[in-house]
Automatic annotation (TrEMBL):
It comes from Lindgomyces ingoldianus. This is Uncharacterized protein. It comes from the Eukaryota. The lineage of its organism: Eukaryota, Fungi, Dikarya, Ascomycota, Pezizomycotina.
Length: 325
């Protein structure tokens, strides 16, 4: 098929039209030939600066453009880091302000390895926090290589991006991605899914069962999943489960210490005292049961076959509690 007149324009002119038009992302979307011509750092940077660093008139259109930008092949972790460095190095903080402009706690250089080490607050937000669009599906599934984990964690920590729950594929991939991380025994990724409601619903008994039975009961993963399930409402009798009990029984019979450990954790969670407490409820008082919780140290044992219990502080929950991002 022959090229249309606009496709035949020299790069300089095409680039000018693209930049003057917004940049309007419909232009590269209209033709592979045009997209190929506009594939250069200059155009990428102009596009990101336009849509990712300032508030535009139409939030809906801006959000749509942001979603598109993050789904592009060129939007790699490497490119995004370069963009962030180039954009915010001059002010010396991810909040996008110099100290003269009101930054009181400079965060620089960005911690790209583990974004959760950067402490933001409601009065000192990253400039990227206004980015409100869909997380690209490329970051929601395995294989869980380092760059993908760092990229996903950074976006969750500094922006308001969420999974597109209306998109069947995105929903399916996010769930599969979480299960893959459990099977891979990748605690970092499991924690991301467990502690971020933007990546899916809180784990319930079915997910706990999956971490134990299919996932081989990696204790750090099981503990984190159980602890999150409890935080989000699974309490007392909700923890009764024949399959988990059978699993523990079988492992104890085989001499596997995981069996005894899990049995104890389940017993701790199933404990219910009361109703003994009195809770205030809109002026009235009502009896309230006190539900058990897991003791981190009880029943713990040494590292057996690489299954050492690691309990990491829940930084994500702290941020939620503070009403942060
Ligand atoms: Zn700052």
């Amino acid at each position: 098929m022959s090229l249309s007149p606009v496709e035949q324009l020299p790069l300089e002119l095409l680039q000018d039209i693209f930049l003057q038009s917004g940049p309007n992302l419909a232009l590269p979307a209209a033709s592979h030939h045009i997209a190929a011509k506009l594939s250069n750092d200059y155009c990428y940077h102009a596009t990101c600066t336009e849509y990712l660093t300032q508030n535009l008139d139409s939030r809906v259109e801006q959000s749509r453009a942001q979603t598109r930008i993050f789904s592009y092949k060129w939007m790699t972790w490497e490119y995004f880091q370069a963009f962030v460095n180039k954009t915010y190095a001059s002010c010396g903080c991810l909040c996008g302000k110099t100290q003269d402009e009101g930054c009181f706690d400079p965060i620089w250089p960005p911690d790209f390895q583990d974004a959760t080490n950067m402490v933001f607050s409601r009065s000192h937000l990253p400039a990227l926090s206004f980015i409100k669009c869909r997380l690209p599906v490329k970051l929601l599934h395995g294989p869980w290589e380092r760059s993908k984990i760092h990229f996903l964690r950074f976006l969750l920590w500094t922006t308001s991006m969420t999974v597109d729950w209306g998109n069947h594929d995105a929903r399916k991939l996010a769930l599969e991605g979480k299960k893959q991380a459990i099977l891979d025994r990748n605690l970092e990724v499991v924690e991301l899914f467990n502690h971020n409601r933007r990546l899916g619903k809180a784990p319930g008994l079915d997910m706990v069962r999956f971490t134990v039975i299919q996932g081989g009961c990696d204790r750090s993963i099981v503990y984190d999943t159980m602890s999150t399930a409890r935080t989000w409402g699974l309490r007392g009798d909700g923890w009764r489960d024949l399959k988990l009990d059978q699993w523990c029984k079988q492992k104890i019979a085989e001499g596997d210490p995981k069996g005894k450990w899990l049995k104890l954790k389940l017993e701790e969670l199933r404990t219910t005292h009361g109703p003994v407490g009195i809770a205030e409820n809109g002026g009235e008082t009502e009896p309230r049961a006190i539900f058990g919780y897991m003791h981190p140290k009880s029943g713990d044992y040494d590292n057996v076959e690489g299954d050492k219990l690691v309990i990491t502080p829940h930084k994500w929950n702290q941020l939620c509690a503070e009403g942060g991002l």
